[in-house]
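Task card 7
Instruction: Convert sequence to structure tokens.
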Amino acid sequence: MAAAEDAGRRAARELAGSRDARDLAAAGEVELRVGPSESPIAAWLLRTGRACPGDSGSEVLVDFAVEAEELGPVSSAEQKARSPLVREAYARAYCAVLAEEAGAVAETRLVPGGGDRQPPVRATAG
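Output:
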């Protein structure tokens, strides 16, 4: 999990550092799903409170946030941390590591709506 989180932070930091905040403005929410729900990874995510059951019951929705301080010394860090594009970069890198190192089925999806806002408290993940 630490490797997945590190990869996510690195991807978010790279994107935030290479783009202006205006370029990262987009509407949408990011969902990070891990499954199947009975897999050891999904069970651990649920047990530790890092995820909640998905609507279909076949996966879990991971609760994640990109914090401004994780982006390093970039301009408009708070705004960039809330950007769905930065959150999607984090989620894609996180999923890639989970798939490669833990054999988990993980996916990310950009869902219309929401826009530039704080991530939710629980795992509707963006």
